[in-house]
Structures are given as structure tokens and as C-alpha cells.
Design brief:
alpha/beta, Rossmann fold, 3 domains, six-stranded parallel beta sheet, 14 strands, 14% strand
């Protein structure tokens, strides 16, 4: 089978590479000529463990191809996946200009049947807009070429995206015809042979499933952060509370870890988009509005703890940040708590030293010269008045307390991911606070 993937961002590149690994002939398309040329040379522009190896392997096997010209492959492919960006507008709604531009290009150039699959996270009703855009272009050409549209939302976790794609816990596909269903079934069969996990729905339901899933996970995070803040006030241990409620089979233990706020490319954008979709349809998503408000407040909590420890006198203090990315195993800093913390510290007149195992280049791109970029975690902590742990990278889990005691100016650690033991920290002479 021959397929095309339009968009070589995180979702598009992982999707295309994993399909090619299963023997499918894949052409990845992007308008960014520089990116395409680099991909042809084997350079992967995003960090995802194992992705560079698979890209190189399948390029060498002549199963994975890259181009800037979608029209050049339309006569050869059975399925076109649209995985272009859907950035949020200022009002929180998803910007569909790139999705619809792909649809119009297809309508202007197809000469045979094709299945057009939306892979990007898009609001309910987008597939019908895609269908209308393609049909409008066919009408202009005076042609009656059959085509189908489908929705196939992605459920990839950054840092484990290849595993998620190769061994999915479910594949959700919204279709309108048996032909489209058969094509998608054939395409995903290699990934689901051991345990059939295909869920076929109507298209609006498939579009909603993605938003509802991310909104639920974001809700669990904000709920636990609210509970953690209340635990602090009443003297309860949130880690014990988490274990207690997570053992309830109706609740489970996933996404119940308190922290300094969620970030990334999915949760913030999808929560905002779902709230906006509801507003456009005359409904008020009160729970999700609270989820968003709690999360935005949570991103400032480490700064507030720091202010209390130093009696609101932070000017001239040297603060070390361990972690920049919104979570481990990615360089993604979109909506990361680190960006909020850096802005607050900078405005307070702090000297900010940062270290992240992977996201330093992304930090330089986003933050610039507001901070000092350290060589490693201990270089960041040198002469620091406090360390703020923002990302639970493995190398941060067991630092040398003796080294830190010799090199820090003040022994203060604020743990935004609750990875350290309070008793151990106090025994080592640190002022310690956590979520």
C-alpha cells in the first residue's frame, strides 16, 4: 500500500516512520524545504527516543520518502493523512487554515479515488469542512471523482511515541463508508494482529474522543494538584492520598501525580479548544474552565514557595532550575511550567541558571539570554541560593547531596515533581519544600 503523510511535525513524522517500518510505502510531505532536505540527509528535527534510527533504516530500505510537493504523489497513493499543525487562535479555537489548505490541494489535483484522513487534533465538524473543501475544488474542475474522508486521532505520548504507535492500546477511526473502513482496517492490521484494538465510530465521535481523552487526563492532574494544595493546609500527605485513591479500581493510579502544572502540545491546547467548541455551541464547560485555571495557578506555585522561604526578597538571588521541558524524554517546552517560572524569576531580579539534558537548544530559542545555560546539573547549582526541580529527568533522581552541600550558597530545594524524600533532605541539612 502507498500512503502520503502531509506534515512532518511530531505526529506526522512518527506516523509515517512507523507505517514504513511495517512495510508500507510512505511519502512524507512538508512545505518547509529546509526541513525536508535535512530529513533526506537523515537529520531528524525533533527529539523522540529511537526515531532517528527508524527514519534512517526505512529511508535506506526505500520505504520512507520526503518531498515538498504533495501533487507529485497523489496519483500513486491510496490514503493521504493530514497531520499539519492546528495552532490555537487567540480565542483558544483551533486554527484550521493548514488543514483546509491540504484539502483544497487534494481537490485541485486528484485524478483517482483517495481516502483523506485527518490525523491532526481538530474540533468536531472539521472532517465535514475538509470534505466540502475537496468537493468544491472538484466542482470547479467539473469532475466527479470519488473520495472519502475519515478521522484517525493520535494518542502518542512524547517520549514513548514509537512504542505507542507500534503497540497501540486502541486505534480510533471515524468513517462514513465501508470502503474507508476496509482501507483503514488493512492499514492498521499489522499493528493490531495480536490483540485487535480497532474502534470504528462515526466521524464526529472520533473527533470528540481525542479532545475528551486529553481533557479527562488534564482534569485528573488539576484535581490532584488541588488536593495536594489542600493537603498542605490540613497536614495530610498527598502521596499517601494518591496511593489510597489510586488503589480504587474505579479510579486507578494513572495521572494522579501532583506537580507544578501540565504543559506540552496537547493538554493546554485541547482543553482550550474544547472549551471554545462548547462556547460556540452555547454551552459552558465549567469543569474544564476550572481545570485550566487550576493549572495556570499551579505553574506559579514553586515561585510562591520560593518567595515565602526568602521573605519576598529575591533580588540578586541565584536560582538553579533543573529541567526545562514540560516532561522527561522530550525537548518540548510548549506551555512548560519552566517558561512561567523563568519569567517570574527574571522580573524579580534573580540570576537564573538552567540545565536540561535535552532541551537546552530549545531553551535558548525560547528564552534567549534571560538565563545562564549550565553545563550540567551541578554547574547549574554552583553558588545557587535554591534549586527548583521542574522536570523529573532520571539523572535528577539521585544527586550527590554532599557535592551540593559544598557548592550551593544556601541549601534550599523546591521539588516540583515530588521525587525526593523529605526526611532524607532534612537530615542532609536542606530546606525542602514540595507539592
Amino acid at each position: 500500500m502507498n500512503i502520503a503523510i502531509v506534515g512532518t511535525g511530531y505526529v506526522g513524522l512518527v506516523t509515517g516512520t512507523c507505517f514504513s517500518e511495517m512495510g508500507i510505502n510512505v511519502t512524507c510531505v512538508d512545505v518547509d524545504e529546509t526541513k525536508i532536505n535535512k530529513l533526506k540527509e537523515g537529520f531528524v528535527p525533533i527529539y523522540e527516543p529511537g526515531l532517528d534510527t527508524l527514519v534512517k533504516k526505512n529511508c535506506e530500505a526505500n520505504r520512507l520518502h520526503f518531498t515538498t510537493d504533495l501533487t507529485s504523489c497523489l496519483d500513486k497513493v491510496d490514503v493521504v493523512f493530514s497531520a499539519v499543525g492546528t495552532p490555537p487562535d487567540e480565542d483558544g479555537s483551533a486554527d484550521l487554515r493548514y488543514v483546509l489548505e491540504v484539502a483544497r490541494t487534494i481537490g485541485k489535483n486528484i485524478n483517482r479515488y483517495v481516502l483523506v484522513v485527518t490525523k491532526s487534533t481538530v474540533p468536531v465538524g472539521t472532517a465535514q469542512k475538509v470534505k466540502a473543501a475537496i468537493q468544491e475544488e472538484l466542482d470547479k474542475r467539473g469532475l466527479d471523482i470519488p473520495f472519502d474522508v475519515a478521522s484517525n486521532p493520535e494518542f502518542l505520548k512524547e517520549g514513548s511515541a514509537i512504542k505507542d504507535f507500534m503497540s497501540p492500546d486502541r486505534v480510533v477511526v471515524g468513517v462514513e463508508s465501508e470502503k474507508a473502513k476496509d482501507l483503514m482496517d488493512k492499514l492498521y492490521k499489522p499493528f493490531t494482529m495480536n490483540n485487535y484494538r480497532m474502534i470504528f465510530t462515526d466521524i464526529p465521535s472520533a473527533e470528540m474522543i481525542k479532545y475528551a481523552a486529553n481533557a479527562m487526563l488534564a482534569t485528573r492532574i488539576s484535581f490532584m494538584n488541588d488536593i495536594a494544595n489542600l493537603c498542605k493546609l490540613v497536614g495530610a500527605d498527598v502521596n499517601m492520598v494518591r496511593r489510597g485513591i489510586g488503589s480504587d479500581s474505579r479510579i486507578g493510579n494513572k495521572f494522579l501525580y501532583p506537580g507544578c502544572g501540565y504543559g506540552g502540545s496537547c493538554f493546554p491546547k485541547d482543553v482550550k479548544a474544547l472549551i471554545k467548541t462548547a462556547t460556540q455551541n452555547g454551552y459552558d464547560m465549567q469543569v474544564l474552565q476550572a481545570v485550566e485555571a487550576v493549572n495556570e495557578k499551579q505553574k506559579t506555585i514553586l515561585y510562591e514557595k520560593l518567595c515565602r522561604i526568602f521573605n519576598n526578597d529575591l533580588k540578586g538571588k541565584t536560582i538553579a532550575l533543573w529541567g526545562l521541558s514540560f516532561k522527561p524524554d522530550t525537548d518540548d517546552m510548549r506551555e512548560a511550567p519552566s517558561l512561567v517560572i523563568i519569567d517570574l524569576l527574571f522580573k524579580s531580579g534573580c540570576v537564573i541558571k538552567v540545565y536540561d539534558p535535552i532541551a537546552m537548544d530549545e531553551g535558548k530559542r525560547r528564552v534567549g539570554d534571560k538565563v545562564i545555560y549550565a553545563r550540567d546539573m551541578y554547574d547549574a547549582a554552583l553558588d545557587a541560593d535554591a534549586i527548583l526541580l521542574l522536570t523529573e529527568w532520571k539523572e535528577f533522581r539521585l544527586p550527590s547531596w554532599n557535592v551540593l552541600k559544598k557548592t550551593m550558597n544556601h541549601l534550599t530545594i523546591i521539588d516540583g515533581r515530588n521525587i525526593y524524600d523529605k526526611k532524607e533532605m532534612q537530615e542532609n541539612g536542606f530546606v525542602y519544600d514540595c507539592i
